[in-house]
């Protein structure tokens, strides 16, 4: 009888201990999340990060995407010779990567200044993307991305705008020639980090590409939008 009582008490204690364990962290509210991510990545531009979080929130509220736990932010207002790609774990407000990323050869030299959704332009696209599956192609292990903004980046799939590694993303070479090598519009990465970062961002995570383009910021469907104003895909 004493043994049975001990087992019951032990089971109750275990249940109580399990119940006391904290639940998996939810993504923080945007204001708090913005502040914490800035602490985690003090070099990131506040406007770029704030717009990225606004776009993510709007896309989720509208049903365009489901809640993502990871977010990549590219700041194309920075030169290619600087680390201008940040990848965050939103559940823990933690910076996972701060890396170099190439832009399209049609977008500019060291600074990207021109962006397009047009096939054959060899330009990068702005806006919010949701990641899809991976494959091995001409650039090795690559990540497909679906552009979510009509007229801005929604031809990403047909243009084969993907994330991949490339030997021309070499900061040592960039310091000699004044810029990274350039892609055909893809956000290309250093080969040493490409696979690991792609696996972090694949299958339903978000990537946001920023540039202070007034027209895009004024008309994007994902900035400060009421739920009813956004049509889900």
Question: Care to describe what's here?
Answer:
- This protein has 233 residues and is of the alpha+beta class.
- The chain has one domain: L,D-transpeptidase catalytic domain-like (Beta Barrel), CATH 2.40.440.10.
- The protein is 32% helix and 20% strand.
- An 8-stranded mixed beta sheet has the order 3-2-1-8-4-5-6-7, sandwiched between helices.
- Strand 2 and strand 3 (94-99) form a beta hairpin.
- The protein is globular.
- The termini are far apart.
- The model is unreliable at 1-25 and 228-233 (pLDDT under 50).
Q: Mean pLDDT, nearest integer?
A: 88
Instruction: Name the beta content range.
Output: 15-25%
The gross shape turns out to be globular
Structural class: alpha+beta
Determine the fraction of residues in helical runs and give it as a percent range: 25-40%
CATH topology: L,D-transpeptidase catalytic domain-like
Number of helices: 7
Tally of structural domains:
1
**Secondary-structure element order, N to C:** HHHEEEEEHEHEHEH
Please identify, by name, the CATH architecture. Beta Barrel
Poorly predicted residue ranges: 1-25, 228-233
Give the strand tally.
8
Name the strands of the widest sheet in spatial order.
3-2-1-8-4-5-6-7
Cα separation of the termini: 63 Å
What would CATH call the homologous superfamily?
L,D-transpeptidase catalytic domain-like
Characterize the largest beta sheet: strand count, sense, and whether it forms a barrel. 8 strands, mixed
């Amino acid at each position: 009888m004493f043994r049975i009582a001990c087992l019951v008490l032990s089971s109750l204690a275990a249940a109580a201990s399990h119940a006391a364990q904290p639940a998996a962290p939810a993504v923080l509210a945007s204001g708090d999340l913005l502040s914490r991510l800035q602490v985690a990545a003090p070099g990131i531009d506040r406007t770029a990060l704030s717009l990225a979080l606004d776009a993510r929130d709007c896309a989720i509220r509208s049903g365009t995407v489901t809640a993502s736990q990871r977010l990549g932010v590219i700041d194309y207002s920075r030169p290619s010779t600087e680390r201008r790609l940040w990848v965050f774990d939103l559940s823990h407000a933690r910076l996972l990567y701060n890396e170099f990323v190439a832009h399209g050869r049609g977008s500019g030299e060291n600074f990207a200044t021109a962006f397009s959704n047009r096939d054959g332009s060899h330009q990068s696209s702005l806006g919010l993307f949701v990641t899809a599956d991976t494959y091995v192609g001409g650039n090795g292990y690559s990540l497909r991305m679906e552009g979510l903004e009509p007229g801005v980046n929604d031809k990403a799939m047909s243009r084969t705008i993907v994330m991949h590694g490339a030997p021309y993303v070499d900061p040592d070479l960039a310091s000699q020639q004044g810029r990274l090598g350039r892609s055909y519009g893809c956000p290309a990465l250093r080969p040493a980090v490409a696979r690991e970062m792609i696996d972090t961002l694949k299958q339903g995570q978000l990537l946001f590409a920023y540039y202070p383009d007034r027209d895009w910021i004024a008309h994007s469907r994902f900035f400060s939008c009421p739920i009813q104003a956004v049509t889900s895909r």
